[in-house]
Specification:
With 174 residues, the chain is mainly β. The protein has one domain: Lipopolysaccharide (LPS) transport protein A like domain (lipopolysaccharide transport protein A fold, Sandwich), CATH 2.60.450.10. The protein contains no helices and twelve strands. The protein is elongated.
Amino acid sequence: MRRFFFLSLLAAAPALAQGSHNTAAPIDFGADHIELQDRANRAVLSGNVSVRQAEMSLAAARMTVAYTGQVVNGSPQVSRLDASGGVTVRRPDQTARSSYAIYDLNRRVITMLGAVSLTQGANTVNGGRLTINLDTGRAVIDGSSVGSGGAGAGGATTARGGRVTGTFSVPDRR
């Protein structure tokens, strides 16, 4: 049954802050290396990891894919994606970058952490954390972050007093 894992590794993938995303669309993925850890119900992809579904793509140096022990139509059910190392999420008119990203498929939420940058056209917003609700398309950036600063939960460091910064374009009024 696990042989089908490669064909259906990612049963759903995120869209970037633009209303609901068709999680039924087929997903393509690639990596230089994959390690299946069946007893732990996960797979670790490393080296130039790329995931694509419909108009959305995600790229990172490494990704851990957690799946339930449940198999539906020959496919394991993916519950969470954890990406690290130069994470980039792209849609046709938006790009988000960060150090880490977590996609909770059950909640349909993407959380990007550490030196977050969200760009749409000439508009750019920077912060420490970006949360994207895939059902509503709502994206929230705040200044808290994984980065330098005091020790936080799980050994991560959290920047204190971070701010959201950015640039908004202004229409040419000539």
